[in-house]
Design a protein that fits this description.
Mean pLDDT: 94
Radius of gyration: 25 Å
CATH class of the largest domain: Mainly Beta
Structural class: alpha+beta
Shape: globular
CATH topology of the largest domain: Neuraminidase
Strand order of the largest sheet: 32-33-35-34-36-37-38-39
Number of strands: 39
Strand content: 25-35%
Length: about 675
């Protein structure tokens, strides 16, 4: 048993999640001399997250220091550090005075100054080239009620009227593009808030703001964002791209001649690889710089120990001659550089998973990245022009050195239809040669996400209890090409299920795995697969399902994306045409087959996989005499396990451990 640290540490406990400090959203100054980033932690007494802006000189790891540290009794969140074009000022968002507003600070230190009164869900902060204005997106302020007798009523005529994490999207106030004068603090709204605009970026001359928006009449059923531009002085927005596929994260080249973006050219195909593309400022000469690589641009590797506000937007470097971008390849997400007519080349020397990055644009670039590995949730790294990569922060080293960690070991196996698959197995803590131990199969969500070479607190916690853990990337996962990702479309519960069972078959070949003490768990699509698997086999002794799906038919009508995402995922099958097919892939239809004890955990404000999915599943299983327990979290949404209230996250982990202990180790084992 060689996959566990030497045993000199202690086992994890759920409360350890409160002690991590997580770096994110690094931003290199225009001259490459400095980097600013966000550091997020947890105030367990306040049951809240805190974050502040940190800076460092890019030639000196010892220079890392906090730039903001607002005093006060209430936890403060400060995000989106953005350098002015001359590098003399740093803008950021902060709720230090109660509402989230924009602030500016001298990077050499001193007091931050609030800019204007605009507040709310500010996003996409970016400086104008002249350094006199900031563009961002936000919803307009809510109108004052006519009286305190206003009815408690919500009315809509839209299909897309709610969104996970945002709740019911009241009236017509979606996110619009705004511009704020940094000297006067005056702001004006550039675009109509009906459409929900995003990703503002300035033209090189500063006269226009580009942004992305889905403005089709059938927008509720056609998810394609186009590139638009609008005069910074105001006026009608003009569509630039032609709707042939989504455009996201646009960035204008330094000379203004090209716009880089992430997207593809196949309409609203949800499985197509995301590519790094460019077009001219009028939407012509659209091309892809990564079409020859059967991989998707951006990071799809999931983790539950990450608070990274990085956008993954491409970065123009070497005065616009090349572009820096990230791309997921198997279990890893690396940084790559590409120029016109060139093949992308990778940046070496960094940990395997890049969660966010930036670079200086002029001359030979200085690159900053937050990079993670299986034993580290992410630290700041700097890559200097000579190619040397250096780790700048070690925020969690002391904590990690206290703990017994289990190193994931890669395994290969054959899935359904002979497809090659890979997974990872973590040995239980304190395991002894010659003894048998339980194994927990953990299924990721999506399905278009990726398990990979990254620290995952929940996996380590389960291994620390003396259980093995296996996770893998069945068909539907990103990182293995389009055929692999597309293999689950219209096929939920068939070959993806067989892929997962083949992973179990591979795991039980290990001499320490007890084939009679297997468990399965997962969230979202992983929760769907957990429910599906216990309805198809009695091979698992116990299960736990989180933010799950039990009835695909009803999810079409109650999820914020069900009417679209589910129809796409089911290969176009719709309610009134394919009712039997949709139900044939729903765990609910097979509830009578279930005899595996199952813990059902759900958030009451989950609009992605709504609460009714858990209620249906629990009611059905309880009526049928299955051992099950339902846990509901008020005030939480689909992100409970990743960014929910700190005490709720710990409570959830404790319940998971207690449930598995009862059936894997206790009186029911």
């Amino acid at each position: 048993m060689s996959g566990v640290s030497d045993g000199s540490g202690r086992r994890l406990k759920p409360e350890d999640i409160w002690s991590f400090e997580l770096a994110g959203d690094p931003r290199v100054s225009p001259d490459g001399r400095r980097v600013a980033f966000v550091l997020t932690g947890i105030d367990s007494e306040a049951n809240a997250y805190t974050s502040s802006i940190w800076v460092a000189e890019t030639d000196d790891p010892g220079s890392v220091r906090p730039l903001t540290n607002p005093a006060g009794d209430d936890p403060v969140r400060e995000t989106m550090p953005r350098w002015s074009p001359d590098g003399r000022r740093l803008a950021f968002a902060s709720n230090r005075d109660g509402a989230t507003r924009l602030w500016i600070i001298d990077p050499d230190g001193g007091e931050a100054k609030r800019v204007g009164e605009q507040s709310g869900n500010l996003a996409g902060l970016t400086w104008s080239p002249r350094g006199n204005a900031l563009a961002f997106t936000s919803a307009p302020p809510a109108p004052a009620p006519e009286s305190n007798l206003r009815p408690d009523v919500y009315s809509t005529d839209r299909l897309r009227y709610k969104f996970n994490g945002r709740g019911l999207m009241a009236d017509e106030r979606r996110n619009a593009v705004w511009v704020m004068d940094v000297d006067t603090g005056e702001s004006h709204q550039l675009t109509d808030s009906y459409w929900d605009d995003a990703n503002p970026t300035w033209s090189a001359c500063g006269d226009y703001v580009y942004f992305v928006s889905d403005r089709y009449p059938e927008k509720d059923m056609y998810y394609v964002t186009d590139l638009y531009r609008v005069s910074a002085a105001g006026g009608e927005a003009e569509r630039v791209s032609d709707g042939e596929g989504p455009v996201n994260n646009p960035v204008v080249s330094p000379d203004g001649g090209r716009v880089a973006f992430i997207g593809h050219h196949r309409g609203d195909d949800t499985v197509a690889n995301l590519e790094l593309g460019t077009m001219d400022p009028d939407g012509n000469e659209r091309s892809s710089l990564t079409s020859g690589i059967d991989r998707s641009v951006g990071n799809s590797v999931g983790s539950d120990t990450r608070m990274d506000g990085g956008t993954g937007e491409p970065v123009w470097i070497r005065d616009g001659e090349e572009i820096l971008f990230s791309m997921t390849d198997g279990s890893r997400c690396g940084l790559y550089v590409v120029g016109p007519g060139d093949d992308p080349r990778s940046i070496e020397g960094l940990p395997p998973v890049i969660t966010s990055f930036s670079a200086s644009s002029a001359g030979d670039p200085v690159v900053a990245a937050v990079a993670a590995d299986w034993d580290n949730p992410g630290d700041l790294w700097i890559v200097r022009p000579d190619g040397g990569a250096e780790r700048f922060t070690r925020f969690n080293d002391d904590l990690l050195e206290e703990l017994i960690l289990s190193e994931p070991r890669r395994v290969e196996y054959t899935g359904a239809e002979g497809w090659p698959m890979e997974g990872w197995i973590m040995e239980p803590a304190d395991a002894r040669d010659g003894e048998k131990y339980p194994l927990i199969l953990h299924v990721h969500g999506g399905p278009a996400s990726t398990s990979g070479d990254v620290f995952f607190f929940e996996y380590q916690l389960l291994a620390s209890q003396g259980w093995g853990v296996m996770y893998n990337n069945p068909r539907g996962s990103k990182g293995y090409g389009e055929e692999h990702a597309r293999g689950v479309i219209g096929e939920w519960g068939r070959n993806d299920y067989l892929d997962l069972m083949a992973a179990v078959d591979r795991a039980v070949q290990l001499d320490w795995v007890d084939a009679d003490r297997l468990a399965v768990t997962g969230g979202s699509y992983g929760g769907y697969m957990t429910n599906w698997m216990v309805s198809q086999t009695d091979r698992f002794r116990v299960a736990a399902t989180f933010r799950s799906i039990s009835n695909l038919y009803t999810k079409y009508g109650c999820s914020d994306i069900g009417f679209y995402h589910n129809r796409k995922g089911m290969g176009g099958a719709d309610l009134w045409d394919e009712e039997d097919f949709i139900m044939s892939r729903s765990p609910m239809r097979f509830a009578r087959r279930v005899d595996t004890p199952i813990l059902i955990v759900h958030s009451e404000e989950d609009h992605r996989c709504p609460m009714e999915q858990a209620e249906q599943w629990y009611s059905a299983l309880k009526r049928l005499g299955v051992e099950c327990s339902l846990v509901r979290y008020a005030g939480e949404n689909h992100e409970l396990s990743r960014s929910g209230k700190p005490h709720n996250r710990v409570d959830r982990l404790n319940r998971l451990v207690d449930w598995f202990r009862r059936y894997l180790d206790g009186e029911n084992a």
